[in-house]
Amino acid sequence: MSISSSIPSSIPFLDLVTPHIELEQQLTGVFHRALHTAGFIGGPMVEEFEEAFAAFCDASHSIAVSSGTDALRFAIMTCGVNAGDVVITVPHTFIATTEAISQAGAVPEFVDIDERTYNMSIEKLQQYLEEQCIRDRSGKLISHRSGRPVSAIVPVHLYGQMADMDAILRLAEEYGLTVIEDACQAHGAEYFSERFGRWMKAGSMGRAAAFSFYPGKNLGACGEAGAVTTNDAEIANKIKMLRDHGQAKKYHHDVEGYNGRLDAIQAGLLHAKLSHLAKWNMQRRERAAEYSCLLANNESLTLPYEPSWSRAVYHLYVIRTNERDGMMSHLKEAGIGTGIHYPIPLHMQRAYVSLNYGLEDFPVATKVSREIVSLPMFPQLTSHQQARVADEICAFTSQAMRKRISGEEDVLVSAVQSA
Ligand SMILES: Cc1ncc(COP(=O)(O)O)c(C=O)c1O
User: Fold this and answer.
1) What span, in angstroms and rounded, lies between the C-alpha atoms of 410 and 266?
2) Is 231 near ligand 1, meaning CB less than 6 Å away?
């Protein structure tokens, strides 16, 4: 055996090159179309993608914008949230969720996550609404904490799994709140709704939903991109104006808006990739099932939990361990890429000191943030690579267990000797 063939090749956390090489011809065709028509902003490539993405999400409208953050901000701004209102979300998410809330003029308040799904805890949401809010004379819900009106909930479909939307929608109706989905990690994820009696797609259940097409997402652009989906034509029209300087007709500005449009080239690239998304999501589900099988007997790990009402699309495959740092270093030395999504919950970020939360206000988010590790996950990951990841994890956990046991034995021996 040659030296090079005895060194195991490294396994990236994410392989973004392979799918682009596989689709090279289709993708370069998009550039040619744009170059030959000079259609760079708006036009048929954007409209065709919007139509196809709305159909993929089972939503009536999709409005392409320049990022997931803009998508969420525009959705919040057009769904009846007023300046100074409270929007309820979770602390275990990417900061863009709360940036969008603040940029829309509202204030985020958190409820903790569920320890198994890592999404918004229904019990904690109910507790917040019952115990941390009052109704004023007009019946409006007011937050005790800030004295501000509460107007919306932003559940985040984290890691590609939808939050428990029936329960969230039921509470939202009871308390007169709007639900806006942060579906930035959940393109194609599904939820079995008892309420509607069928499987529903991410982006089709809230008043509006935001998607990110950041390159590493399940559907990623070759740059920045995002979209809002909604079944409400009025919201769709308002977002079309907001993304384009507040104009529905050139130089007729009904409101001040933003430069939040999606480039036609990005729309064309996304449209080309969209036809592969269902297959890629299926491959991610197969890869996830394989990891869960390979790691099932390792008692030092907590594996992802998929309730019977969920079909997750595994944007990330996240496990938990008490020995996170050691495991990540071990995998790094073995040439295996990992990540942490996310190491500091938002209530503990310096950017949110002014919200005055303490570490223990959201114990589940705090605990989870210290234990999570994201393993390599992408559609082209091979069984062989996964077996190596699992072998290295198991080698590390057995080694760690042996060290723990011998440490405990040493303590016992010295206790016996000193007795
Ligand atoms: C949960 C969540 N919300 C919002 C965003 C923002 O999307 P973008 O980076 O496209 O602005 C992201 C992207 O990483 C995300 O993961």
Assistant:
1) 61
2) no
What's the pLDDT tens digit per position in 253-277?
999 999 999 999 999 999 999 999 9
Instruction: Report the predicted TM-score, pTM, of the whole model to 2 decimal places.
Output: 0.96
CA of 189 to the centre of ligand 1 (A): 16
DSSP for 203-229 reads TSSSSEEEEE--TTSSS--SS--EEEE
First-to-final CA distance of the chain: 56
What does each C-alpha distance from 407 to 219, 323, 398, 413 come to in angstroms? Answer: 47, 15, 14, 10
- Contacts of residue 308, defined as CB under 8 A and 6 or more positions apart, other chains included, come to 192
Q: What is the DSSP string of 260-278?
A: -BPBHHHHHHHHHHHHHHH
- Ligand 1 centroid distance, CA of 212 (Å): 5
Q: 98 CB less than 6 Å from ligand 1?
A: no
How far is residue 370's CA from residue 365's CA, in Å, rounded to a whole number?
A: 9
In short, whether 184's Cβ falls inside 6 Å of ligand 1 is yes
* Segment 121-176, tens digit of pLDDT: 999 999 999 999 999 999 999 999 999 999 999 999 999 999 999 999 999 999 99
Number of the ligand 1 atom closest to the C-alpha atom of 100? 4
- What single letter denotes the amino acid at residue 70? D
Q: Which two tokens stand for residue 190?
A: 């599904």
Q: Using CA atoms, how far apart are residues 23 and 237, in angstroms rounded to an integer?
A: 33
Q: Report yes or no: 344 and 365 within 8 Å, Cβ to Cβ.
A: no
